[in-house]
Specification:
With 318 residues, the chain is α/β, with parallel strands linked by helices. It is built from 8 helices and 15 strands. It has a 7-stranded mixed beta sheet with strand order 5-2-1-6-7-8-9, sandwiched between helices. Strands 10, 11, 12, 13, 14 and 15 form a 6-stranded antiparallel beta sheet that branches. It has a two-stranded antiparallel sheet with strand order 3-4. α1 packs parallel to α6 and α5 packs antiparallel against α7.
């Protein structure tokens, strides 16, 4: 079967690699255009493009998916199926080209967590289970008929980065199974129940400020749900600090009455902050413009004392 693959980030690579290993005919891969990144504004390639260059796979990098030249190029490739993993929203003019349709891999158990950030929101919301779903594309985003799903447990301290890597591998296998069913004409789909749907919108920097007035468990879930990117942050003495890993202190860890955001301990190894219902221990932290460090390493070079206070954000503050 002839497959046109579409993807951009690292999450897409295990699926593409698996399809290649199974000797599927992939005449080209579609990925996002090159663009300048970072302070130096150097032009960089997407992870999928870097992978394809190493494998000598032809690439298409359209700026506009409705571009007649691009659509013509896709038709000329004559794909039986389009497989989409972490790409963009496809217009009807594109996803209806293949004779056997277009399928997408989504990192949640649809209809739960429809949207751009399902991994982040599942952890932020304290879910203990998520998964992956393959489905046929329709015009409404993430609403198509489900082909297959696989459930994955979320550990109590697992970060979005940890879960991302796990789901990418599980997703690759589910896509392969889905492609085989389509190839054999044995696929059986089921409609999604919109009544069970929940949203997972894109997360921007201004959404990542830690509210120390929340419970320790809520803060812990928030931090790990945003780690390593886009990353939860707070401020101390006007300096922005990114928080990557935390732990809820046993028994709440409280040491007397203190306002949320107050530093309760800042010893050689112990960095604890007051929340609404106890203390949370910061394990990995980064001052803006410097390296990501363990709390122990950070405290050797940053002036922070018990009684100092991290800022509690005002509504809408960034």
């Amino acid at each position: 079967m002839r497959i046109l693959f579409m993807g951009t980030p690292d999450f897409a690579i295990p699926t593409l690699s698996t399809l290649l290993e199974q000797s599927y005919d992939i005449p080209a891969v579609v990925t996002a255009p090159d663009k300048p990144r970072g302070r130096g504004r150097e032009v960089s390639f997407t992870p999928v493009k870097n992978f394809c260059l190493k494998k000598n796979i032809p690439l298409l990098q359209p700026g506009e998916l409705k571009d007649p030249v691009f659509l013509s190029a896709v038709r000329n490739l004559a794909p039986d199926l389009i497989v989409v993993v972490a790409f963009r929203i496809l217009p009807r003019e594109l996803f209806t080209i293949p004779s056997r349709g277009s399928i997408n891999l989504h990192a949640s158990l649809l209809p739960r967590y429809r949207g751009a950030a399902p991994i982040n929101w599942a952890i932020i919301n304290g879910e203990t289970e998520t998964g992956v779903t393959t489905f046929f594309l329709q015009e409404r985003v993430d609403t198509g008929s489900v082909i297959l799903q696989a459930r994955v447990r979320i550990g109590p301290d697992e970060t979005a980065g940890d879960l991302h890597d796990k789901l990418a591998e599980v997703g690759a296998e589910i896509v392969l199974q889905s492609v085989r069913l389509i190839e054999r004409g044995q696929v059986q789909t089921r409609m999604q129940d919109d009544r069970l749907a929940s949203a997972a919108p894109k997360i921007f920097r201004e959404h990542c400020s830690i509210d120390w007035a929340k419970s320790a468990r809520e803060i812990h879930n928030f931090v790990r749900g945003l780690s390593p990117v886009p990353c939860a942050w707070t401020r101390h003495a006007g300096k922005l600090l990114r928080i990557y890993r935390t732990a809820v202190m046993p028994g709440g860890g409280g040491r007397g009455p203190a306002l949320p955001g107050t530093v309760i301990a800042a010893g050689e190894k112990d960095l604890a902050v007051q929340s609404a219902d106890g203390c949370i221990s910061i394990l990995e932290i980064q001052q803006e413009g410097k390296k990501r460090l363990s709390a122990e390493e950070f405290l050797r070079g940053y002036e922070l004392r018990a009684g100092d206070r991290f800022e509690v954000p005002l509504p809408g503050a960034a």
